[in-house]
Amino acid sequence: MNNENQEPVYHNNFFSILVSLLVGGMAGAITMLLLAPQSGKATRLQIQEKGIELRDRTSEMVEDAMAQVRLDRNKLSLSGRQKAKEIMRQGQTLVVEQLDRVSEAAQAGKKAIQGS
Predict the structure, then answer these.
(1) Would residue 32 count as lying in a domain?
(2) Model pTM greater than 0.90?
(3) Which one in 7, 21, 92, 113 has a CA-CA gap of 20 to 30 Å to 38?
């Protein structure tokens, strides 16, 4: 007899919980519909407008970033050209100095040979 008494209790508890969930869910849905600030169509339109706004803002941010990258690239390119010119000038100066030293050494060697 104990089994017979326990089964209906569990069955009743499960059924009560199920009915409570359904009633609570329906009450929440009805409350949501009654208290919703706008219709579904208006909400979809608002989502679409926000999506367009976010797309435009993202496009602007990407364009700004690309402009900054171009500006930085141009600065680096100009700086690189200036550095290359500076290094070239320094190299030319070193070559002239070395040629002068070689020329002086050659003159000294020539005088040494003539003086002997």
Answers:
(1) yes
(2) no
(3) 21
